[in-house]
Amino acid sequence: MEMKEFYYQDGLRVSVFNLDHKAIPYHFHGEVSDMMYCSRGQITIELPDADEVYTVHPGEVFQVPHPSKHRFVNGAPVGTLSRYVLLQIGAFDINFVPAAKEIAGQFAGRAMTHVADGAVYIEGRKNDIIKLADHFEQEKPEVLTPEEQADVVEALRCFASRGIEAGHPQAAGQR
Question: Which InterPro entries match (predicted)?
Answer without folding.
Answer: RmlC-like_jellyroll (IPR014710), RmlC_Cupin_sf (IPR011051)
